[in-house]
Specification:
alpha/beta, eleven-stranded mixed β-sheet, 11 strands, binds the ligand CSC[C@H]1O[C@H](OP(=O)(O)O)[C@H](O)[C@@H]1O, binds adenine, glycosyltransferase, MTAP, Purine_phosphorylase-2_CS
């Protein structure tokens, strides 16, 4: 990879609860992509928006059959990588943990606290060990574009905030919700980890637009979160999310140099297993996501 390299971005969109399709794509085609880690949540929707190549994946599958703990996060990210995706925008429904982030508000997340316990969190394993940096887990370059486009559209948006990732599928107890508030978290959801970690391992830039749908269960003046309230708020907000996607894709899709945040070089110094100690079967799987450094 040279500093003068020109990247022709391919934009990946991962749609969460309430976002199972993307409007306005041209040359649309749903295609099955099989990965060394199995099948992703659904077929991927390939298309172009203002000439920019995009790939959309409904995170839970069309019709929402897959719960957060059963998502094949590795297959979802590997399918994006195998489709040439360079930049992912994750669109996620979240609960608010702060008074000043009401339903309808957008948060461009910049940190995670990962409380998930049941998920496969790495492409790497015995036979090829890698330790990437997650100090800044989201791509600030994409964050800048999301912030600028949200402001241009007049959306209520906050730049920065910590997303607490819980295992689910049950919503939090009130004690948990208050604990996460005391930690200073901004929003709560169930899906963005290990999605973000795996994108970083695959050297794909990744950023999240968290769409606030409820006040979880801590707010005395608001009802406790239910699926009904999440879906209702998302229906009211899907036009905003779609307008943002339409603005962000052409802005992100222009030819550019390497990522200024360095996400596309995340594996540069991450591998520790000596070549002679590597497992050939694992290496052959890893080629699709880490071929650049293997
Ligand atoms: C339907 S409410 C809970 C559900 O919504 C969020 O999903 P996503 O991040 O895919 O929008 C949350 O994380 C839960 O999976
Ligand atoms: N309150 C909440 N907790 C977890 N995930 C959510 N997704 C939307 N609202 C949520």
């Amino acid at each position: 990879m040279s500093q003068n390299e020109v990247v022709e971005p391919v934009i990946g969109l991962i749609g969460g609860s309430g976002l199972y399709d993307i409007d306005g794509l041209e040359e649309k085609e749903w295609r099955t992509v099989e990965t060394p880690w199995g099948l992703p949540s659904d077929q991927l929707l390939f298309g172009r928006l203002e000439g920019v190549r995009c790939v959309f994946l409904p995170r839970h599958g069309r019709g929402h059959p897959i719960p957060p703990s059963r998502l094949n996060y590795r297959a979802n990210i590997a399918a994006m990588k195998m489709s040439g995706v360079t930049d992912i925008v994750s669109l996620s429904a979240v609960g608010s943990l702060k008074e000043e982030l009401p339903p309808g508000h957008l948060v461009i997340v910049d940190q995670f606290i990962d409380r998930t316990i049941w998920r496969e969190k790495s492409f790497f394993d015995t036979g090829c060990v890698a330790h990437i940096s997650m100090a800044d887990p989201l791509c600030a370059r994409i964050g800048d574009v999301l912030e600028a486009q949200s402001n241009a559209l007049g959306l209520d948006v906050t730049r920065g905030g910590t997303y607490l990732v819980m295992e689910g599928p049950q919503f939090s107890t009130r004690a948990e919700s208050n604990l996460y508030r005391s930690w200073g978290c901004s929003v709560i959801g169930m899906t963005n980890m290990p999605e973000a970690t795996l994108a970083r391992e695959a050297e794909i830039c990744y950023a999240t637009v968290a769409m606030v749908t409820d006040y979880d269960c801590w707010h005395e003046d608001h009802d406790n979160v239910t699926v009904e309230s999440v879906v209702k708020t998302m229906q009211g907000n899907s036009a905003k999310a779609k307008a943002l996607v339409k603005a962000v894709i052409p802005a992100l899709g222009q030819p550019r140099s390497l990522c200024s945040a360095g996400c596309d070089r995340a594996l540069e110094y991450a591998l520790i297993t000596a070549p002679e100690a590597r497992d050939p079967a694992l290496i052959s799987k890893l080629k699709v996501i880490a071929g650049r450094v293997l």
